């Protein structure tokens, strides 16, 4: 071996040595938390105004080194959140400890075995004093599989001046028919979500539930065995409301591509004097009025009441939403995760989160908090609505059902009395694997 | 195309190729061997990373398999293909995809050629500026460009309704199939015309200037020179540009996903595959859609290479 060759070997050995040291230190980085005894919990959150991040920091600090929570942000769209989580969970990703999960995807995630069981002794802690709908949303096959964090519901929002001019008595429940007539008389629009998206299912489900029906009659069943209740009197009543909105031309411009955010903007810009939407619109309107992008008088004209009824004398079953937090079955720190969850969903945190992010609490007692009452003057309407709310179909096939409804009931102008039967047939075929979606 | 010049151009080049091969020397053999040594590892890796997923997709497509219900996995033979090929949604997506491909590639070819001419002809300090300006859209990520076009046309954020004459203030471009497809095509054309013009520019550079000069001396008009000299000499480049873009356009996904998500009858084949595999997590059905999409791409390649005789090597000036 001459001098040059041995020099080259030395360099190679040196490079390999550096590589080994680097790899070692990288592994050490990954296990850093284990070395200090503080497990790092990774919490996948839906995007918000920073409320969940703050809760994570507060709980980490309060844990006294029992755990440290880091957040990872999911996409803003519920369907995309599901896609990302499902892909990771199906791959057995151990980096997910906690996840903020839309209740409609709880059955699918649980059925697939992706959720760590909720410890027996903690079940009461997580459900005591929580609104019924939220507990239902976190339950699958009679077992609590996720933890209710916040519970959302839609209200009917209106411009007080327009409702008054139309002669509507908003102290009593109003019907869709009354709204359509009022909007037509006042030459305004009703803000509804007509986009081919999950928001369409929220609307259709709420109308079917309000008319006494249900989209799925046996939600526990496997896909091919699911019995749908869309082709029913309730389904026809829902289709009739949509038809009347289209015929009267009170859907407003761009109805076919409007989701909740676009509806809130339309209402804010006075393009609609009525709308059905989640309570975030209030915080958004307030910020716009304070920021000078909306006239203060318009914000002061905001009124709210419970969701529109399908018929006079029959109370509405408003949409139920919110976020549950679940612990991944692949987490290596499930005990710490459940310990952290007790802190995350505490009454104090739920109240602070409602004030900071505009998302209504799952715990009923939070609505008695003076700070919450001041920030959300409609707290009582939210509480009443949550009590009457009907969850969306609790099925492991929610995505198929929802996409099928959105596909068949959109555009609103195409809805007819044949839509319920056509959509029932289509979704049935999709669930049996006989149709593409 | 001109029948007089093409054979001449085609006949002139293989002279260095095939007859030479017959009398291959030891040196040539050694070079070929070296070529394999150099390209071999890359070739093996390519086969592993593309071949493996393709074979797995083929295998999965024979099952009824939902990612969230692995226990219910069942072998069903070709039933997934039967479901897809008898579904009107598949054919609607196919028609949309073919339409988008034909329309965008045709327009891009004409526009791209015009831009390539501009890039080719412009001289002096203007040259780098013009070339950069033309290539900028291609540097934009497709998703970003799709959002930009969507925001421009959307009812809430758009300004197009106040710019385009004869369009009402409340007109929703994405609520109607044809206007939605129009915006999708416009965005696609804006984004990828520079790619075609770049390939055509390389072709233009290969056209011998003395042939053009000779045609000029012979009294050919600019139009005749274009059709009888420039274009025939660029045939290989044009065909390669056409093939690359057709394959690319056929797999259109981003624009549709961002702008309509397949609403208003704008579904395309790639978006359909995504929806079954990623959104529904129906791995079997989705794999079958992907396999069919792959077959379509193979057919396009076959048509281009066998029927239209696209020679990929020659277009790069290797012939």
TrEMBL record, chain A:
<keyword id="KW-0813">Transport</keyword>
<protein>
    <submittedName>
        <fullName>Extracellular solute-binding protein family 1</fullName>
    </submittedName>
</protein>
<keyword id="KW-0732">Signal</keyword>
<comment type="similarity">
    <text>Belongs to the bacterial solute-binding protein 1 family.</text>
</comment>
<dbReference type="GO" id="GO:1901982">
    <property type="term" value="F:maltose binding"/>
</dbReference>
<dbReference type="GO" id="GO:0055052">
    <property type="term" value="C:ATP-binding cassette (ABC) transporter complex, substrate-binding subunit-containing"/>
</dbReference>
<dbReference type="GO" id="GO:0042956">
    <property type="term" value="P:maltodextrin transmembrane transport"/>
</dbReference>
<dbReference type="InterPro" id="IPR006059">
    <property type="entry name" value="SBP"/>
</dbReference>
<dbReference type="Pfam" id="PF01547">
    <property type="entry name" value="SBP_bac_1"/>
</dbReference>
<dbReference type="GO" id="GO:0015768">
    <property type="term" value="P:maltose transport"/>
</dbReference>
TrEMBL record, chain B:
<feature type="compositionally biased region" description="Low complexity">
    <location>
        <begin position="1"/>
        <end position="19"/>
    </location>
</feature>
<feature type="region of interest" description="Disordered">
    <location>
        <begin position="1"/>
        <end position="24"/>
    </location>
</feature>
<keyword id="KW-0813">Transport</keyword>
<feature type="transmembrane region" description="Helical">
    <location>
        <begin position="98"/>
        <end position="123"/>
    </location>
</feature>
<protein>
    <submittedName>
        <fullName>Binding-protein-dependent transport systems inner membrane component</fullName>
    </submittedName>
</protein>
<keyword id="KW-0812">Transmembrane</keyword>
<feature type="transmembrane region" description="Helical">
    <location>
        <begin position="135"/>
        <end position="160"/>
    </location>
</feature>
<keyword id="KW-1003">Cell membrane</keyword>
<feature type="transmembrane region" description="Helical">
    <location>
        <begin position="180"/>
        <end position="205"/>
    </location>
</feature>
<dbReference type="Pfam" id="PF00528">
    <property type="entry name" value="BPD_transp_1"/>
</dbReference>
<feature type="transmembrane region" description="Helical">
    <location>
        <begin position="34"/>
        <end position="55"/>
    </location>
</feature>
<dbReference type="GO" id="GO:0005886">
    <property type="term" value="C:plasma membrane"/>
</dbReference>
<dbReference type="InterPro" id="IPR035906">
    <property type="entry name" value="MetI-like_sf"/>
</dbReference>
<feature type="transmembrane region" description="Helical">
    <location>
        <begin position="283"/>
        <end position="305"/>
    </location>
</feature>
<feature type="domain" description="ABC transmembrane type-1">
    <location>
        <begin position="94"/>
        <end position="304"/>
    </location>
</feature>
<keyword id="KW-1133">Transmembrane helix</keyword>
<dbReference type="GO" id="GO:0055085">
    <property type="term" value="P:transmembrane transport"/>
</dbReference>
<keyword id="KW-0472">Membrane</keyword>
<dbReference type="InterPro" id="IPR000515">
    <property type="entry name" value="MetI-like"/>
</dbReference>
<comment type="similarity">
    <text>Belongs to the binding-protein-dependent transport system permease family.</text>
</comment>
């Amino acid at each position: 071996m001459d001098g040059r060759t041995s020099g080259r070997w030395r360099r190679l050995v040196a490079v390999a040595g550096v590589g080994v040291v680097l790899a070692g230190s990288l592994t050490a980085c990954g296990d850093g938390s284990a070395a200090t005894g503080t497990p790092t919990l990774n919490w996948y959150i839906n995007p918000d105004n920073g409320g969940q991040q703050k809760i994570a920091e507060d709980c980490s600090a309060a844990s006294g080194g029992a755990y440290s929570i880091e957040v990872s942000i999911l996409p803003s769209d519920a369907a995309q959140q599901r896609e990302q989580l499902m892909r990771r969970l199906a791959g057995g990703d151990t980096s997910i400890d906690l996840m903020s999960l839309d209740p409609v995807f709880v059955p699918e995630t649980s059925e697939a075995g992706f959720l760590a069981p909720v410890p027996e002794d903690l079940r009461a802690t997580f459900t005591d004093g929580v609104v019924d709908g939220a507990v239902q949303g976190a339950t699958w096959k009679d077992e609590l599989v996720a933890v209710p964090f916040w519970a959302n519901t839609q209200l009917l929002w209106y411009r007080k001046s327009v409702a008054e001019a139309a002669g509507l008595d908003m102290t009593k429940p109003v019907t869709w028919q009354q709204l359509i007539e009022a909007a037509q008389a006042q030459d305004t629009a009703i803000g509804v979500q007509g986009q081919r998206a999950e928001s369409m299912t929220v609307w259709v489900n709420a109308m079917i539930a309000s008319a006494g029906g249900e989209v799925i009659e046996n939600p526990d069943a496997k896909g091919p065995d699911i019995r749908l209740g869309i082709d029913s009197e309730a389904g026809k009543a829902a289709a009739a409301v949509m038809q009347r909105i289209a015929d009267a031309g009170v859907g407003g411009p761009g109805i076919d591509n409007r989701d909740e955010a676009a509806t809130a903007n339309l209402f804010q810009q006075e393009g609609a004097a009525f709308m059905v939407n989640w309570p975030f619109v209030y915080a958004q309107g307030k910020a716009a009025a304070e920021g000078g992008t909306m006239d203060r008088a318009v914000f002061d004209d905001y009124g709210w009441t419970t969701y529109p009824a399908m018929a006079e004398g029959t109370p509405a079953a408003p949409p139920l939403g919110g976020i549950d937090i679940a612990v991944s079955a692949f987490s290596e720190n499930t005990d710490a995760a459940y310990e952290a969850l007790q802190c995350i969903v505490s009454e104090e945190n739920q109240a602070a989160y409602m004030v900071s992010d505009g998302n209504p609490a799952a715990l009923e007692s939070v609505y008695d908090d003076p700070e919450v009452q001041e920030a959300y003057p409609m707290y009582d309407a939210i509480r009443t609505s949550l009590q009457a709310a009907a969850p969306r179909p609790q099925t492991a096939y929610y995505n198929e059902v929802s996409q099928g409804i959105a596909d068949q009931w959109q555009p609103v102008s195409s809805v007819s009395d044949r839509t319920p039967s056509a959509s029932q047939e289509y979704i049935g075929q999709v669930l049996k694997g006989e149709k593409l979606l | 195309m001109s029948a007089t010049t093409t054979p001449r151009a085609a006949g002139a080049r293989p002279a260095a190729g095939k007859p030479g091969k017959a009398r291959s020397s030891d040196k040539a053999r050694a070079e070929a061997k070296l070529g394999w040594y150099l390209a071999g590892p890359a070739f093996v890796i390519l086969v592993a990373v593309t071949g493996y997923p393709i074979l797995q997709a083929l295998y999965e497509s024979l099952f009824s398999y939902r990612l969230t219900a692995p226990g219910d996995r069942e072998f069903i033979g070709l039933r997934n293909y039967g479901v897809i090929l008898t579904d009107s949604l598949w054919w609607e997506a196919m028609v949309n995809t073919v339409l988008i491909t034909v329309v965008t590639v045709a327009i891009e070819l004409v526009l791209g050629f015009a831009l390539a001419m501009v890039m080719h002809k412009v001289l002096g300090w203007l040259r780098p500026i013009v070339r950069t300006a033309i290539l900028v859209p291609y540097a934009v990520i497709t998703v970003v460009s799709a959002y930009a076009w969507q925001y421009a046309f959307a009812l809430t954020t758009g300004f197009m309704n106040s710019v385009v004459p004869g369009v009402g203030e409340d007109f929703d471009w994405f609520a109607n199939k044809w206007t939605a497809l129009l915006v999708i095509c416009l965005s696609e054309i804006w984004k990828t015309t520079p790619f075609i013009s770049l390939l055509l520019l390389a072709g233009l550079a290969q056209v011998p200037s003395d042939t053009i000069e000779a045609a000029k001396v012979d009294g050919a008009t600019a139009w005749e020179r274009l059709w009888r000299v420039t274009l025939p000499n660029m045939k290989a480049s044009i065909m390669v540009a056409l093939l690359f873009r057709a394959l690319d356009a056929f797999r259109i996904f981003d624009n549709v996903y961002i702008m309509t998500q397949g609403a208003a009858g704008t579904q395309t084949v790639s978006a359909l595959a995504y929806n079954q595999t990623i959104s529904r997590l129906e791995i079997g059905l989705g794999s079958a859609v992907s396999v069919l999409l792959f077959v379509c791409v193979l057919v396009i390649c076959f048509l281009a290479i066998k029927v239209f005789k696209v020679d990929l090597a020659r277009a790069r000036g290797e012939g």
